[in-house]
Amino acid sequence: QVQLVESGGGLVQAGGSLRLSCTASGRTFSSYGMGWFRQPPGKEREFVASISGSGGSTYYADSVKGRFTISRDNAKNTVYLQMNSLKPEDTAVYFCTQADGIKWSDYWGQGTQVTVSS
Questions:
Q1: b/e string for 67-81 if b means 16 or more Cβ within 10 A?
Q2: DSSP string for the chain
Q3: Residue 18: CB atoms within 10 Å
Q4: Cα–chain-centroid distance for residue 100?
Q5: Do 20 and 36 meet the contact criterion of CB atoms below 8 Å apart?
Q6: Is the distance from CB of 99 to CB of 4 less than 8 angstroms?
Q7: What pLDDT sits at residue 102?
Q8: What is the pLDDT of residues 6-48, one digit of tens each?
Q9: Which residue, 10, 56, 61, 112, has most beta carbons within 10 Å?
């Protein structure tokens, strides 16, 4: 059974930084791409960033490009999301997920709240 546990959310002022972590268990971590999504209040879940199993390829939503960095440590079964220059519109619950081939799996973490005050 795959389990994903996010941590690192919190309240931060605009312009500040946070680093989210997601630790996975249940299958060989390095074999799977990982992704971060977020769900702002009253809106649908949206893609933020993804990283390949080896860490060699990354992709970002236009809204976070240049401010957020996704990375992974396969020895620790953990994927990170470094968020800099945070804006109030980054306020959301952030979720991590694991890929299954070319699509996202049904495995999701419980989410971690990020609140950016203006």
A1: ebbbebeeeebbbbb
A2: --EEEEE--EEEETT--EEEEEEEESS-GGGS-EEEEEE-TTS--EEEEEE-TTS--EEE-TTTTTTEEEEEETTTTEEEEEE-S--GGG-EEEEEEEEETTEEEEEE---EEEEEE-
A3: 21
A4: 16
A5: yes
A6: no
A7: 86
A8: 999 999 999 999 999 999 999 999 999 999 999 999 999 999 9
A9: 112
One-letter amino acid identity for 34? M
> Tens of pLDDT along 51-95?
999 999 999 999 999 999 999 999 999 999 999 999 999 999 999
Position 70, amino acid: I
Q: Measured between alpha carbons, how far is residue 60 from residues 11, 25, 36, 38, 102 in Å?
A: 23, 24, 10, 13, 16
Query: What pLDDT is recorded for position 54?
Result: 95
